[in-house]
Amino acid sequence: MLCRQFTTSAARAATKKNNLFNALFKQKRPRPRIPQTEDEIMAPLPPNTAKAAFSGTPPRPANKRPPKMVEVTRKQGLRGLLSSIFKTDQSSHRTAQRFRQEKLSNIGLNQVKFLNTDSITNILYWYTVDMKFNQSDFQRLLPDKNLRVGSYDPQFDTIDIEVHRARNPVNLTRWMGYFLTFKSKDAAMVYYQETLGAELCGMPLKLRFVEPSIRGYTSPLLDKAPGVSRHSHALILGLPVGYSETTILRVLWDYDLIDDDKLAVQRVPVDRVKYGGSPFVLRFKSEEEADRFVKDYNQQIFPYTSSRVLCEVVD
User: Fold this and answer.
1) What is the Cα Rg of the chain in Å?
2) Are 193 and 225 found together in one domain?
3) Phi and psi for 164 in degrees, rounded to 5?
4) What's the CA gap between 303 and 264, in Å, rounded?
5) Where do the segments described as Disordered lie (predicted)?
6) What is the spatial distance between Cα 98 and Cα 22, in angstroms, rounded to a whole number?
7) Are 149 and 109 contacting, i.e. CB atoms less than 8 angstroms apart?
8) How far is it, in rounded angstroms, from Cα 71 to Cα 189?
9) Which of 53, 123, 126, 308 has the fewest CB atoms within 10 Å, i.e. is most exposed?
């Protein structure tokens, strides 16, 4: 009898010890929140906080019962989900229908107010990476006259654009960006407005108006030979140091260069060119001859050299 009573007492003690161990170590305690404001710091502690700290159980907030678990069947949950989706969809349709019934006003930019600003010119600039674009690429971005946002004078049904690359005025090497030149400020404004948010080869077309005096728009080298267009100029990069203009004239004897030998082949300053000797500017009598020269010698080993050269038309 005494042995049985001792065994029962030992079992009760072990059970109590296990319960205490589980309460202290196996129970997930919530992390105490650190007071942030002065009111939270000075607020009195909840009752039984000290007692709970020694007992190992988190204190229960005063006058707050644990929330009751509401059982929701699968049918009720699906019904509630469909109801919420229907209400949201119905609200969005109502908003869209109200927007369609409103009168459209102030379509497009105010042309008079827009043109009176000082920053409006007939030149637009687009800063972009070094990619090859031409006039037709920018022309396709302009919507048809029946699909445009604003209403304009019939003279703007077709807009002529002159596109050329930004270039170093010292030696005509490439810079980042393109210039779009229009016949008037009105034409530039129409193109600017109708291409807002457009993309070209995945890149956003962020245009801005610039003055003709901006660096990179033109170069004194393009004005030295009157009557020679911009696209009749070609550029050679990568020739070795010491390669002369006379040697280039001998190599290109079958090309229609201009009659003035000093202007037909002109050495220009190196400036920031990182390879080869000084660049050379070639002036041809026609744009077709400049294109033929580039097709024949671009990325090819130039005569009397052992290196490949880069040739391009000054676009």
Assistant:
1) 40
2) no
3) -145, 155
4) 18
5) 39-68
6) 62
7) no
8) 64
9) 53
| pTM value surpassing 0.85 | no
Domain presence at residue 97:
no
Q: What is the band of 100 on the pLDDT scale with cuts at 50, 70, 90?
A: very low
Domain boundary among 209, 238, 258: 209
Q: Are residues 137 and 163 in the same domain?
A: yes
Please name the residues in contact with 142: beta carbons below 8 A apart, sequence gap of 6 or more. Answer: 159, 191, 194, 195
Q: What angle do CA 156, 190, 114 make, to 5 degrees?
A: 130
Q: How far is CA 234 from CA 171, 264, 266, 297, in A?
A: 11, 10, 11, 11
Distance CA 249, CA 261 (A): 8
What integer pLDDT is reported at residue 146 of this predicted model?
84
Rounded Cα distance between 70 and 190, Å, is 63
Tell me how crowded residue 133 is: count the other CB atoms within 10 A of its CB.
15
Higher pLDDT, 252 or 2: 252
* Residue 273 lies in domain: 220-313
Q: Which helix (H) or strand (E) holds 310?
A: strand 310-313
Question: What are the angstrom distances between the C-alpha of 157 and each of 143, 181, 193, 197?
Answer: 10, 17, 14, 20
Query: How far does CA 301 lie from the centroid of its chain?
Result: 38
Q: How many residues does the chain have?
A: 315
